Amino acid sequence: MAEMASFLTIPVPSHYFHILLQNLQPGLCPQDNFVQGTVAERFPLASGQQNVLKMVLHEDIIPKGMQDAETAAHITINVYFFGGLAEEADSTIQKGSLLALTGFQVTNSPSRKRDGHFHLQLELSRELQSAIFVLPKPAELPGKRSEGNKVELGAWPPKQRKGHFKVYTYTPLWKVQTNMVVNIYGAVKLFKPPMQSKGPDHSLVLTVVDPSAPEGLRCVLFGSLSSLPPVQHVGDIVRFHRLKVQTYCSSLQGTQMPGFSALVFDGTVGAPIVPKSTSLSFSFDAEQEKEEVSKLRSWMLQTYSTSLTRGLMDVKPHSFLNLQCQLVAIARVDLRCSLLKVWDGTLCPYIPYSPTLDNVKLKTDMELLHRSKGLTIDIMVYDDHAESASSLQPGDFLDIFNLHATQPALGSSVDQNSEDRPRIRFVLHGSSAFGRGLKVLPEHSEAAMSLSRALQAACCQNLSDPLSETLYEEVVSCTGVNGEDSAQEKTETCMERRPGHYQQRITPLTTVLSRALLGKYRVRVKVVQYLPPQMYRCVKLFCPACQTLQDIPSQKHVARCLRNLAQMCCKPDSGAEDWCEFMHMEGSPVGEAIDTRHITLRRVNMRNMEEQLVEESLLLAQGLTLAELNKLTSEFAAVIPITSSEEKMGLPSLCMPFLLQGHRRSYRCLSCSPAVGTEDFQKLTDLETIEAISVATALRLQLLRHVYILQLTLEDATGKLQAFLCKEQAERFFGGLPADLAVTDSTLQAQVQEVIDKFCPPEGTAGKRLWLDCTLKSVHVPDEAPDKRRCFHIFDMVPVDDEHDL
Question: Hey, which of 2, 12, 603, 612 would disulfide with 581, CB 3.0 to 4.6 Å?
Answer without folding.
Answer: 603
